Amino acid sequence: MTARSAVVAALLLTLVAGCGVPAEDEARPLPASGTVPGTGPVVEVSPSPAGSVAQPFYFVRRGRLVPVVRWIGPATPLDALTRTLLAGPTSSEAAADLTSALTGTATVRGVRRSGAIALVDLGDDPPATGRTDEILAFGQIVCTLTARTDVSGVAFVRGDQPLEVPRPDGSLSAQPMAALTYADLLAPA
């Protein structure tokens, strides 16, 4: 065995031995609560329907953004994704204390693309005020849409005019935002 082969073999043994998953004598069942331990606050455990992809939708619990995974078709348009988010949490999600800050804060007229940026048209609502629930509402939209691999940022418009919306620090921005913008509002995993 060459020195290089010995190094590769030792590295592979180290990786396999140190994978961090302890052996158990028997399988442990998942909790009946519908969550998977260690994956964050709320994650749906239902099996994926054939041809579906996991999509995090962000809702609110105790002033924090919480991801909930739902299964959607891989070609689901951004408009349909946004309508699903606007419909709010399901009854089981609401029973898990999830709510939506979107109710009554913004009317989404539509969503279209400009490259990898989702442009969310807010219609004729009053201007952004920077209230906490309004910040959470924008965070829900941004985090949900940018969870898709084909969306790198979200900008808000009214018609064709850029719209300034609140960031977590209360400042207003018309620039496209990513989930990282709202990272301080995410519930701890």
Provide an overview of this structure:
Mean pLDDT is 78; it is low at 4-41. The protein has one domain (34-185). The protein is 23% helix and 21% strand. It contains four helices and eight strands. With 189 residues, the protein is of the alpha+beta class. The strands form three sheets. It has a four-stranded mixed sheet. Strands 1-2 form a two-stranded antiparallel sheet.
Q: Structural class, from helix and strand content?
A: alpha+beta
Tally of separate domains: 1
The amount of helix comes to 10-25%
| Quaternary organisation of the protein chains | single chain
- Regions with pLDDT < 50 over 5+ consecutive residues? 4-41
Count of DSSP strands = 8
Give the mean pLDDT. Answer: 78
Give a quick summary of the entry:
Residues 78-167 form the GerMN domain. The protein has helices spanning 3-17, 78-86, 91-95, 132-146, and strands spanning 53-61, 64-72, 110-114, 117-121, 153-158, 161-162, 165-166, 172-173.
